[in-house]
């Protein structure tokens, strides 16, 4: 049997490998000029720093099987993501923790005192939050919401927080201790040689053929016994029911001597700054030493037809269109939709890998 894979990010690469290991001939189609999708990393030619080209990627999971799987392909150095945020020209720690609360309100609360204080300033009258704003007001109160989330969210999503669903905020923690680890996952790390190296190793099999700069169209699926696609779901159907909403990102790189900001990621919460955050890439590889530094300013925009989609918005109007695409997808024969864009969901890397392994396993069982 001959298998077609659309996209060479983690979803496509993992499925390609699993099927190749089981004797299938696999052909991967990648529209870009490189493998690894949005996880793509490469050495900057001037600084020799390993750059996260499409935004920072920190691998984290509490699933030991997934952690063991990814560690087959490179050595992962332990890495703790400690995000900082600038609001009204002051710098704080994210996610919101006891240090953030005490710094913001100029207090010395104990954990219990901070819990009681946040309870007092929160809008407890909001019983069932519907919007992002409702959830934030119920969660942390007006002051912290406006300082860290309101304007940042408008820059990030291009929408008023009143228009966004509450579940976007629900996965962001508030801690009443001094833990500033952005993630709670048991295993966290970054590959020594970058994610492109990892994906290349995953795809390194004699039964896998890779086609770069190659757009896969729906009519081509007749050449294969089965196709797994991680391309945008609506594009597969030629946008017959309309375009789903995505956000895209634009990046501006700058090179400096020494250390620019002393941290991998700093969020800029205010409208006074156009970018949403600055990433300083050498801090993602602290085991390396560099005299220069490269930073990336990140800007968020509504995705236009010729832009690269990064993550789905999933507004109410999108869900109506999405259901039509889901119905159409169910009727497709010999096609499986995978990954963030193929399923129109936000997926972390570890979830994308786990679902790819499950998709391959289900296919092999059938």
Describe this structure in words.
With 366 residues, the protein is of the alpha/beta class. The chain contains eleven helices and 17 strands. The protein has helices at 10-21, 64-70, 98-105, 111-121, 132-157, 167-170, 195-202, 233-236, 316-331, 339-343, 349-365, and strands at 2-6, 25-29, 41-43, 50-52, 59-61, 76-78, 83-87, 90-94, 187-191, 208-211, 226-229, 246-257, 265-268, 277-280, 292-302, 311-312, 335-337. Strands 8-7-13-14-15-12-16 form a seven-stranded mixed beta sheet. A five-stranded parallel beta sheet has the order 10-2-1-11-17. α1 (10-21) links the parallel β1 and β2 (25-29). α1 packs parallel to α11. The protein is globular and about 65 Å long. It starts with a strand and ends with a helix.
Give the structure's gist in a few sentences.
This protein has 366 residues and is α/β, with parallel strands linked by helices. 32% of the residues lie in helices and 22% in strands.
Distance between the termini: 13 Å
Rounded radius of gyration (Å): 22 Å
Low-pLDDT parts are none
Report the sheet with the most strands, covering strand number, pairing sense and barrel closure.
7 strands, mixed
Q: How many strands?
A: 17
Q: Which strand order do you get reading across the main beta sheet?
A: 8-7-13-14-15-12-16
Structural class of the helices, strands and pairings? Answer: alpha/beta
Averaged pLDDT: 96
């Amino acid at each position: 049997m001959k298998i077609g894979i659309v996209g060479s990010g983690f979803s496509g690469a993992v499925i390609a490998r699993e099927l190749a290991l089981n004797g299938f001939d696999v052909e991967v189609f990648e529209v870009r000029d490189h493998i690894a999708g949005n996880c793509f990393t490469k050495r900057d030619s001037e600084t020799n720093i390993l750059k996260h080209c499409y935004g920072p990627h920190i691998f984290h999971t509490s699933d030991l099987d997934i952690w063991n799987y990814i560690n087959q392909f490179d050595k992962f150095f332990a890495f703790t993501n400690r995000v900082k945020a600038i609001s009204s020209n002051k710098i704080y720690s994210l996610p919101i923790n006891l240090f953030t609360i005490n710094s913001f309100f100029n207090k010395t609360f104990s954990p219990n005192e901070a819990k009681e204080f946040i309870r007092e300033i929160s809008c407890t009258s909001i019983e069932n939050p519907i919007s992002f704003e409702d959830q934030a007001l119920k969660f942390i109160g007006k002051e912290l919401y406006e300082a860290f989330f309101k304007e940042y969210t408008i820059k990030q999503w291009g929408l008023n927080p009143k228009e966004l669903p509450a579940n976007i905020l629900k996965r962001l923690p508030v801690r009443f201790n001094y833990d500033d680890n952005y993630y709670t996952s048991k295993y966290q790390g970054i590959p020594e040689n970058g994610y492109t190296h990892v994906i290349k190793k995953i795809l390194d099999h004699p039964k896998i053929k890779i086609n770069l700069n190659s757009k896969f169209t729906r009519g081509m699926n007749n050449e294969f016994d089965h196709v797994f696609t991680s391309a945008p779901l609506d594009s597969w159907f030629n946008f017959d029911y309309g375009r789903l909403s995505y956000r895209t990102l634009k990046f501006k790189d700058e090179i400096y001597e020494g250390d620019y900001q002393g941290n991998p990621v700093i969020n800029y919460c205010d409208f006074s700054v156009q970018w949403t955050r600055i990433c300083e890439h050498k801090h993602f590889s602290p085991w390396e030493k560099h005299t220069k530094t490269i930073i990336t300013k990140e800007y968020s925009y509504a995705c236009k037809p010729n832009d690269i989609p990064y993550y789905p918005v999933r507004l109410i109007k999108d869900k109506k269109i999405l259901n039509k695409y889901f119905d159409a997808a169910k009727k497709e024969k010999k096609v499986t939709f995978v990954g963030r864009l193929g399923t129109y969901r936000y997926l972390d890397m570890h979830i994308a890998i786990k679902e790819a392994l499950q998709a391959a396993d289900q296919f092999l069982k059938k």
